[in-house]
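Example record

One chain of 374 residues, shown exactly as stored in the release files.
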Amino acid sequence: MSRAMTAAGWIAGNAAALTGLADRIWAYAEPSLREWRSAAATAALLRAHGFTIAWGTAGLPAAFVATHGDRGPVLGFNVEYDALPGLSQRAGTAIAAATALGSRATIKVFASTGEEHLVGKAYAVRDGAYDGLDAFLDWHPAPVTGTGWDVTSALYSATFSFLGSPGHGSSPLGTRSGLDGALLLTEMVERLRAGHVSPAGRVSYTISGGGAPNVTPDLRTVWVYVRESTAAAARTLYDQVVTCAHAAAAGSGTRLEHRLVTAIRQGLGNRAGAELLHHTMSELGPPAFTDADHAFARRLQAAIGRRPLPGHGGGHAGRAARDARGGQRGVRLPRTGARAPAGRRRAAVPPAAARLPRRDGPVAAADPDAARFR
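Predicted structure tokens for this chain:
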């Protein structure tokens, strides 16, 4: 029996525990850097199968590295468990790989906190967490099942806070509105997006603040994401946004506080690794979905008011892939209304390995690490 079939057999035999973990993380829906229960539950499952856990990767308390074995090539796997506001994602595990390879390799699982905010992996790379790997397999949720050697976007994340002076709305003269500064910045960003950004470029933002409508707001913050096809192009676009922010502060008479949160280079895919995954996925065959699975998916679509349309999408994989020779795969379920980013390359492959675990399995046992985060 091939190692791929050995791993697939282990997955089938432990489907209830794996699905139970995934469902718990989905239900927790913990935001970036606060994934306490999700991290503890993931560590508990890995420890139960012989992994040792080292907490606090790059000083981040909800991140850890799990290790199995101490000889042979060092293979890394990726786990993510943070949720975007209003969304959630599941974690993958590498226990099946340890089962298939036995003592022939050292398996490391990198449990990343703050992935959706571009924080966890960037600081882990900075601190050398991925040093010494021979190969790294990245995983990220997406709408379809496949593998490829995608070149993912370079991104900048920054905040721009406009500080003014408050006053009553009935007497606005002499006040300086932080909201004016924020709105001027977003208006200039819209002009950039309308005709001065390449097809691969993206600028998105959100405004935070509060207060009452009859009080001139003295502080508003615009959180901006800038993405482009390369690090150099992303820096050029980011610098344009910074210039707009300074102009917005000057125009509104406010003081600008600018903070770069994080930045990442574009991910570098690995064609050889992707073709190896393609071969293994072809050997194992496509996932099988039951009538109950389809009914569950239709209920989800109905709950969010979406029609069942096919689509493609992308994630933020690639921070660690630059520092290790990485392939990429995803177990991806249908999602509506998504489009592939410009310049995205994907291998044409059949659907992924092994039958997906069912959603009705029992929940995993209590987490020994849960007390860490109480």
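Notes: The longest helix spans residues 231-252.
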